[in-house]
Amino acid sequence: MTKALFNALASDYDVINKVISFGQDKQWRRALSRLLPLSAGLTYVDVGTGTGDVLFTVTEPRSWTHAHGVDPAQAMLAIANQQSAHLVPQPQWHCAPAELLPFHNDFADVMTMAFAIRNVTDRLQSLREMARILKPNGVMAIMEFSWPTACWIRWPFNLYFRFIMPAMGGLISGQHHSYRYLAKSVSEFPSPDEFESMLTEAGLRPTTRVSLSAGMVHIYLATK
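Request: output the structure for the sequence above.
Response:
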């Protein structure tokens, strides 16, 4: 379902993200980038890369030996490929699900996944695949929405994600059902503590948790 959903949203995806996040998506990506190593010569993989926004933000201040973006939605990758013409070396784009990553064991020094883990079919298998290809002592950063714990923001957050955001996304894209699904996926995502337990079950070692925007977004750092 989600592969078809994101293929259908591809042409409007970046614009809608900026609108429904009130421009915060750029700040969230930069916060993620600041947590990653700056060493030259590393191999980097972005899982659930979509149109490549996270890969581009993370790559800008760094010199990777290789950069790879993986996504199951071919339409998203086509846009990412068009937008990466200025990058040297060129990123490599792979059409594959997170549950079956096209890399050998201990492949990546750095991995990211932003706002995608809640959309995979088998979340634990995806995390196990990421653990498989991460090098020992490599760095993994996963960024995802969370239901805020602060009382003052829980009610407006609930109102926005259940009603306002699906209406806005649907108005721009014409895909109202898609944004109702995305809102539902946020409400059903595990709590930060539960998600860190899942990382551990997948063979990873959580190291740092960063809360952004009053707990609406969390970045989870882990290693192997």
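Residues 151-173 form the longest helix (23 residues).
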